[in-house]
Amino acid sequence: MLLWFVGTAMLSVWYVFRDGRFDNRWLIVGVLLPDVVDGPWGGARAFHSVATSVLVLVLVMLATIGRRPLRRRLLAVPIGLFLHLVFDGAFADTSVFWWPFTGLSFDDASLPVVERGWFNLVLEAVGLGLMWWIVRLFDLRDPDRRRRLWRDGSVSTEPR
User: Fold this and answer.
1) Three-state SS letters, 41-53
2) 17 within domain boundaries
3) Which domain holds residue 21?
4) Which among 26, 49, 126, 154 is least buried, having the fewest CB atoms inside 10 angstroms?
């Protein structure tokens, strides 16, 4: 799953923060990270826990004391982690979502993306539609706007 997470995260952040300088590149890293890290372990693990998202947020805040521009960019990672939990439905498995507070075992929990099976195709199709919306909203057909997104992660503050 790629388009579902990227599309939902980018649109959510835009409609909540309305900040054209938000670094969407780091947001995408954060929203994809839980499946990339936990997947090789064979199921949902620490990165599908709210505790890990909070820990990453605290680490970013502590590591960037006095370095506001870096903090501004890196805060997108924990925001992406939190959004992954929401749009993956990770909260449905309380033993993983509340790990380690509910115990240290993951009870062989599978990744939510694996549990959904064929329904992922529906979500990816919705994600494709969301990506089309993002391209239209921020006029990413314009090469200068696409370069800006790739260069500094930002989108126009004035969507069309």
Assistant:
1) HCCCCHHHCHHHH
2) yes
3) 11-116
4) 126
In a domain, 28, yes or no: yes
Q: Which of 98, 151, 89, 143 is nearest to 120 (CA)?
A: 89
Whether 1 maps to a domain, the answer reads: no
pLDDT value of position 107: 79
What total of structural domains would you count in the chain?
1
- C-alpha dihedral (17, 13, 150, 140), degrees to nearest 10: -90
- Burial degree of 153 (CB within 10 A; 0-12, 13-18, 19+): middle
pLDDT, one tens digit per residue, over 27-66 is 999 999 999 999 999 899 999 999 999 999 999 999 999 9
